[in-house]
Amino acid sequence: MNIGTRKILDRSFTAVGIGSIIVMAVALMIVVVPIITNGIGAVFFTGTVEHRKMLFSEFKRGDSENLSSEVASSERYRAKVYQMLTGFEAELETMAPEQKAEYQAKYTQVRAALQALLGPLPGDPEPMLTRFKYGQTRWEKAEEKLHDLLYETRWDNSNPEVMAKEYFVSRAIGFQGTSLVKLFPYVKNNLESMLLPEFTCYWGFITDSSVDSHFFGGIWPEIQGTFFLAVGAMLFAFPLGVVAAVYFTEYARPGFLNSMLRSANSTLAGVPSIVFGMFGLAFFINTMKVSESKSVIAGALTLAIMILPTIIRAAEEAILAVPKTYREASLSLGSTKWNTIATVILPAALPGILTGGVISLGRAAGETAPIIFTAAVSVGSAIGLADVFSSPTPALSWNIYNLASEHEAAAQIRHVQYGMVLALVSIVLMLNLSAIVLRARISKKLKG
Amino acid sequence: MIKKILLFVVLLSLTLSVTAGAAVTALVLDGSTTVGPVAKTFAAYFTKKYGVRVTVSESGSGNGAKSLINGSCTIATMSRAMKEAELAAARQKGVNPVASVVALDGLAMVVHPANPVRSLTKAQISSIYRGTITNWREVGGPNASIVVIQRESNSGTEESFKELVVGKGVQITGRAETQSSNGSVKSRVSSTLSAIGFLGHGFVDRSVKVIAVNGILPTVATVKNGTYPVSRPLYFYTNGQPAGLVKQFVDLPKTAEGKRMITELGFINR
Questions:
Q1: Which of A124, A169, A231, B24 could form a disulfide with A120 if both were Cys (CB 3.0 to 4.6 A apart)?
Q2: What is the ipTM of this complex?
Q3: Shortest Cα distance, chain B CAs vs residue A13, angstroms
C-alpha cells in the first residue's frame, strides 16, 4: 500500500472516530438534558401559599407566624370570591326552575374548577384525601387550572366525517347577565394575590415520605429502598464473586469442567434480568421461603445473583492483570500460596475488583425486572434496617414505572416522576464516579 | 483494620437477627391495579391511624390471587371474583380464600374527547371487540378505523369486561392492542383519536370521554342500582375469616371514613 492511501485511510478513520464520539455526545445530551431540566423542577419550582400550608400541616415545617400572615393576606382576596359565590347561589334560588337547572350545571363546573385551584371552598366538607385538602401547590399547575376555570373545552362536531376539533369558550359568556360574570376577571387578575407564588426550594422532596400516594411530599422511601436493595445485593455478591474469581484464576485446574464453569458464568451474565426476577420469586420466596412475602432480602438476593457473573468476570480480569513477577517474588521469599494471594495479589488487583463491584452496584440500583416480584411495592413507608428481612420496599426504578403508567393521576404528578428519574440517574452516576475516584486513590497508594 | 470491619459486621448481623426475631405486624396487599387507588389510600390511612405498616403492590388481579395462594400476601385485592381453578389451587395449598366487597365499580367505556360518538349498545361494543365492526362510521361516528384497546390476561378488569360484554370464551380480535394497567389505557386513549378502551370508574378524568352503554352513563346512581350494565364489585380476599388487624383493614369500607375515601376516589360504595 502506498503512503498516500495509508494517509487517507488513517485520516478517514480519525474522522469516523470523532464523528461517532460526537453522535454519542449528542445522544447523551438529548437524553440527559430533559432529565435534568425536568427533574430539577421537582425541587426548585414556583410554590404557592398552598404548598407552604401543606408543608406546615403535613410535615410541621415552616414559620407559623409568617404562614398565618400569608394565609390572612390571601384570604382577604379569596373572601371576595367566596362572597360572589354565595351571592350567585342566592341569585340561583330566585330563578325560574328551568333557568336554574341550566345555570346549576354550569355553576357546578365553576365550583369544581375553583376547588381545584384554591382548595376546599367554605361550606365544603373537610376532604378525607390529602390531595383535595389543598389548592394548587405549584404555580405552573395553577395557571393550567386557571385556564380551566376561565374557559370551557368544547368539541366542534360540525363535520360528521372527521373527528371533532377542540375549541375553548369563555365561561364568563355563559354567565352573562348574572352576578357571577364578575368572578372570572377577578380571579384572573388577583390569582397571584390569592396564591402568593414565590420561588421555592423544596429539599424535602429528597428527604420526606410521600403523602397520599405521591401527590405531595417526597421520595425518601424510594431512595432508601434502592439503597438497601443495591447494598444488600453487594453484601452477598461481592465476597462470593471475589472468592469465585480467586478459585478460577489461582486454584482451578484447566480442564473441561473449568471451561464449562467459565462459559456458564458468561452465559449467566447475558441472561435477561426478568428471568432472574422470576427465578427469585420461584426460588427465594416460594421454595426457600426467605421471607413470608416480598422483602428486601429476597430482592437483594435476586439482584445479587444477577450481578454475580459481572463481579466474577471483573475480579478475574483484575487478578489476571497482576504482573507475574509479583507472584514470583512473593513465592521466592518463602511465602505460601494463600499468603501470596491475600497479601500480594488481591491488594494489587483491588482497584479493578472494586471498579467491577461499584459498576455492578449501579446496575443493581437501576434494575426493575428482578425486583417487581421479589421486593418492590408501589406504596410503603420507609423501612428500618431491622425490617429488611420481612418487609418489601418502594424502590426508585419500580416506582418510576408505576407513576408513569399505573398511577390514577399520572398526568398530574409528572414532576414527581421526573424527580425520581433524576434521583436515580444521579445515584448511579455518583456510584460510578466514586468507583473512578476509589480506583485512582488505591492505585496511587499502591504505587507508593 | 480488617478485624475491626469483621467485628462490626458480626455485631451488626447479631443485632439484626435479634430485632428480626420480634414479631413485626405488617399488612401486605397485592393485586389489582383498579383497586390500587383504594388500597393505597386505605394503607396510608391505616398506617397513620394504627401505626401498622401496610405495603401495596399493583400487579394485577391474577397475581393477587397467586400471591394469596402462595401465602405471600395478607390481602389480595381483586377486581373480579376468584375463579374455580384458583379456588381449587388454594384449597390444595390449605388456603381458604374469603371475599369481602370493597366497593362497586362501573367499567367505563372511554373514547377520545374528539370522538362524536356518545352512546353504544352492548352488542355494538361486543362487535367492536370481536372485530366485526372496525370503523367508527358503522356506529354513527366519523370515517376512522377503530383502535381497540384491551387489558392483559392477568387483569381482573379484562376478565370482567369479557364476562359482562363480549361473552366468556369469545375471542377478542387479534388487532386489539394490549395495555398493562388502567393508567396506560387512559393515556393511550387520550392520545389516540380513534381509540376505544375500558377503565375502572375511579380512573376516569377529563382527558377521555365516557360513552353511555345502552344509553346509560356510569354514575353513582346507575352503578348502585344496577342499571349500568357493565359494573362489578371489587374485592379484598383474605385467607380464612379475617381477624384482628386484617379484619380492621378489610372492614374499612364499612366505616364512615372509609366510605368517604371511596367516594372521593371516584368509586361507588356498596
A1: A124
A2: 0.82
A3: 45
